[in-house]
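User: Quick one: structure for sequence A, then sequence B.

Assistant: Sequence A:
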Amino acid sequence: MRRFSSSLRLLALGLLGLGAFGASPAVSASIVPHRAIYAMNLAGVKNGSDITDVSGRMLFEWRDVCDGWAIQQHMRLHFSYSDDDDQDLASTELTWESKDGKRYNFNIRRVTNGKETENYRGKAQRNDDGSVTVTYSVPNNKTVHLPVGTLFPTAHTELILENAARGDKFFTRRVFDGSDADGASDISAFVLPPRAAAAEEGLDAKMKENPLVSGNAFPVHMAFFKIGGETGEPDYEMDLSLMPSGIARRMKIDYGDFSVTGNLQEVEALPAQNCP
């Protein structure tokens, strides 16, 4: 029977793609370092899938650490199957990205039913010609070279917000986040005009009144493609309701056979750093 041992990896990759929602001067926004908690639940399944339920929660924290953006993401999910052979999946992801977009550190660990199944650690450096070299400490002796134009997660989200502010709807870029054995994927992003919190399906009533997320948010659709994939079909797709502050009000991740939603349950602003 098929098991989605990679389900958490895909979900975490998509959420890590949220990055630290920093903004450039082109975006009219007041960026809010924050801590958010999301309730994760099954949204739907296709005929033939043996998944009967998905539930869990995710803690997402973004901090401004003066020289860069530091992200912590902790997630636990329980997958229920029709044969009662359930799975408990957990992920911890710690990343740091320099504000100039030249350096990126990652430390990612995933556990299935109490046993470590994935572990990736390393550093990425943008070279003088704009290309990127990735050196892994885990697994050992692994080096990856990525082409000019490759972005790290924060820079990619900056680009989303820049395009949203200009009214540009569509773009595709290669993004490295270190979240799997390949580390990079091609992401096509489609941005729609902003909408009010009152129109947000699934958003908790108390969140609609929270000043951190009560304003307009951009609906963003992203399709994630494996590099060199032959089918032309995305590996998975993701919909976000993205505030100009960088807070994701709601998300939906569609893997084809099943989809999962993440609804914001709690959010708080984090204190600013006293940077020199």
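Sequence B:
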Amino acid sequence: MRPVFHHRGFWVLLCGWIIWTTGIKAQNSSSESSLERLGMGDLRDGDVIFQEWNCGEGCSAISGVTRSAYGRAFTHCGLFIRDSVGTLRVLEAVGRGVVATELQDFLSRTSEWSKGRVLVGRPDENPSFLQEVMSFALGQVGQPYDEVFALDNQRWYCSELIDAAFAKATGKDATYFGLSPMTFKNPGSKEILPYWQHYFDSLGVSVPEGEPGINPGSLSRSPKLRHALLEADPTPGTMDALLLSTLYVQRSAEYQGLCRQVYRSAAQQLTVLLDSAQRSAPEELRKRPPAVVLDLDETVLDNSLYAGWQIRHGSAYSSASWQAWVQKAEATAVPGVRDYLLVAQQKGLRVVYLSNRKSSQWMATKQNMLALDLPVDGLDSMLLRQNSSEKQARRDSVKLRYTVLQWVGDNLQDMDGFITHSSEEERAQNVLKEVHRLGRDWVLLPNPVYGPWEDLWHAEPSPINKRPREVQTSVNFKSLVETTNRKHKDRLVQRLRYFRP
């Protein structure tokens, strides 16, 4: 690896900066142990993250000639950003140039992360200023790494990029954090370190001893940054509530077994239901082709990788990130669904999918389905959301064309005729009234990750529609289930049943 005074960046979209007074509150302390601690969900666009990157002899050579805050040995730094879909990244200049590295990958380079000793520096600047900072950094995407540590050559090393971005935001070309003469000499002997002599000789340039520059160590000591330590928390905010349910879907044999059990039982019912429809259904229904109707998300397509992304980045659901996931067409098949659909086709049944994915996502969804060898038979076989997320009107249109033998979904509101209620108790009572349909023409898959069962606990009256993959209820709610505030976790804890010893 090449030596590194690095950093360099990529895309940065500033959604709105919360200024210093709402973030890190204390002045920089002389003791690292008394610094405030932040979770990943507390990071703001424009925060500078310092790293003791042990990249070998090159990093040792850097730390040997520089001095960092709190007696540390910082060899690298970068700008924190949250991109347009909510992915946490670090804008950095490294050997391959300016890149936007996922935060977890950036942090994994150093053992200080597991110790909760990653230093964060937050600039005390207003939102418009920071917009200019990030805009300049974004404009440098693709520029090469500055191997010779020279200023004004359209190449960047890490701390140089950060200083230049802040300097440009002032409207001047001067430094923001302050430049100082670079040295590559051994502090004891005052001789150029052999590593640096060999390094610059290999580049065919003289050692830039005394030339102006900036390094991660001096940047970390700037009074224009206020310090905090980043917690070693793999599940930022309160996304730990989502973590267990997602792991259950991705890793447990029980989830695999439940889904296969449900689909095998449903397939066995098809023979009885088809025979009953052909013999005893009204003549009008017997004339219509028989069909099964399935929801898509968490019924046919397993989106737990998207939930994993949310957990990794402490990000709530958003239309942008969901769209990015759908376009990748990488959802896997829910266990057992392929065998069930094969049985349905063998019996001559029409397969219809009824989902609240947007109609604009039809092609990406079709590609995903075909990649999984799941049947898709034209536009009429996959009814996606156009205007309203209410499904009953679409179910009624399907019933005019087909004799539907089974309704399959991960949500009771995927079932034909299920009455939507605004309370947990009313929903439970309605299930008891319809219990004779469960496992027969109502086929219900487990989904511990999301759904109306938990939206009810966090609901607030709001005109905002629910996320596309969910069903719109009769009462408009704004779901808080995926937010990362502590209030959400408290609500979940309050729903727990427990015994008092």
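The chain has two domains: 20-230, 240-494. Residues 8 and 93 are 3 Å apart (CA to CA).

User: Thanks, that's what I needed.
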